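[scheduler] slot 2 assigned
[scheduler] job type: sequence-to-structure, two independent chains
[scheduler] chain ordering preserved from manifest
[runner] begin chain α
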Amino acid sequence: MGSEWGSLTDVPGIKVGQVERIGDGWLSGVTVVLPPPGTIGGVDVRGGGPGTHETDALSPTTLVPTVDAVVLTGGSAYGLAAAGGTQRWCEEQGRGFPVPGGVVPIVPAAAIFDLGRGGDFAARPGDAMGYAAAAAAGGSGDGAAVGRGNVGAGTGAAIGAGAFKGGVGTASLRLSGPNSSVVVAALAVVNAAGLPWAGPGPAAGRTAAPRDMFGGAGEGLNTTLAVVAVNAVLTPAEATRTATAAHAGMARALNPVHTLADGDTIFVLATGAMALDASAHGPVAAMIELQSAAAEVLRLAIADGVASATAVDTPSGRLEPFAPQGTFEP
């Protein structure tokens, strides 16, 4: 994997900022995705143990359809405080829904469970780290490289119920034919209960997860988070449906997925730079192609996050990168 697979910032106007702390009890961080003003948002939460903030604001039935930033953070529910720092930065920039006297930034967030992996249960992201990640995103250039592996919200990530190191991954694709200018990209924070599928089918070693995978201390310490971005025009309902469709990519990448012990959440951001061209096969076919690409690019981003993770020593032992038995094909 790597940079040749593209990144979330291949969608024009999308910026990413990441901060982390390692050592002195810390192994955690924050990833902030900053879209251009007017970006439409959607979300779909499938995991049974989510830690989220302001996801209800992204419902197609609510007042404000746009998103000012998305925060992905470590620290479980405690780490959601990082959203306040990002909101504060957005307010300083005048980004938000106009109200009498100022603006209210719309900043949905989701968290992974990495509490205590650095040794100190209280060492988790908060307001200051959320502000710093937003400032890093705001200060980055268009199309800037996105860090992978043990960075941002992926710093303390693990997979296989805490057995192997997880991390941040990203990828991008283009649609075909008349929509070849449409970019669909994803960024994933892989902290899954499950493990990557080994190969494309049973003959290559695809098997069910071991029955005892979740019987130890790793139970409950999971979640895969993702942001899928497109430069197409989508309504809030279409963005939400695209988030739903993208979960198929998560299921192709990890086994098991969407468990009671995961908080699996996908955000979708549509910058609205160009309308989908439906002249070839109609609007339904164009939307199906986009949503199929959303699932595939998320599968690639998750594989990239697993492949980019590097070993880390924790107080409870060493987390090594995942070394699949058989064939692991991104």
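[runner] end chain α
[runner] begin chain β
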Amino acid sequence: MKKAIKRISISVIAALLIAALGIYSARIPTVYNCRPGEEPAGSVLYTVDADPAETVQSSESYTAKIKLFGLLPIKNAVVNRIAQKQLVVLGTPFGVKLYTKGVIVVDAEEGSAGIASGIQVGDIILTYNDAEIRSNEELAAQVQSCGGQRQKARILRNQREQTLWVTPEKTSDGYTIGLWVRDSTAGLGTLTYYDPETDMVAGLGHSISDVDTGLTMPVDSGTLVSAGITGVKTGEKNEPGELLGYLEDQELAEITTNCETGLFGAATAEFTGVSYPVAMQDEIVEGDAQILCTVLGKTPETYSIRITRVNNNLSETRNLCIQVTDQRLLEATGGIVQGMSGSPILQNGKIIGAVTHVLLSDPTAGYGIFIENMLKSQ
């Protein structure tokens, strides 16, 4: 009986170990980046090994075996050789003037013609009555021209286009569909870098989203302009602070992309500054780092922070957990505030990422995005 119990116990332990190894194996990345002439980093529990002949033949990428304890092959991995890239690090304030592709429905009157047609808050109206819609005024003009007839609206919802039919209601002032829409936005942010290879400028580290719906605003056109900081609304627990400033007329770039990893534009002005090499994800470590940001005027300063966690599974834009340790910045802003998004993060002489969000429960802490993730989107 005792032998039978021992056999069962050993079997259970073995099954648990196999299950644990399976879970651990699934979490091991299958894509690695390294510099030419270097080998990809593994960990204390596994190695990333390749056939030497294959690594010689390939100049850009090759296939390797991931081996537990350096002995047991468990799966393949792709290793990319990436040359050292240099970026001009900025940290300067900028203003954005963005016009949407279509108009975003931000509110609707209950029981209105728009609601009856199936249009919802958050929808983007692309065309109405077969006319492209770029502004609130264009939509209003098309509604007024209906003559009481049913009109066609082409909308975008959850990245899918669909067609709906709207019959405007007649009022004493003409016709209405009972929708409130937004066609543009403006605001302040921080530029992260200028890429001299592509002539692209990047900032924010996250998208510009509509304040009412939370949707990423689709870009039709827009510009990045110079800006200055005049003051700070200090951040407090559960009350994010904000940089206060002004926008100028000097154009810096034409917006090309507004996406989850940042705001990107083709440079129309000259950018100068110090160039830093780009750090890959496996070069980033917990510990001391710096951010470059502007809290007064137009000139950025360097402030001390600490990387408290490196984890690329938090989200697309929350790859790093950061803590402000510089007393000067804490006294000036209370920590991380709105408008600092895009502030470049430096560590060991390399640019590793950009500030993206403040932690509401603790304004001295926040998140950052890997610089690699921003570069993939430009």
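[runner] end chain β
[qc] chain β: The two ends are 67 Å apart (CA to CA).
[scheduler] slot 2 released
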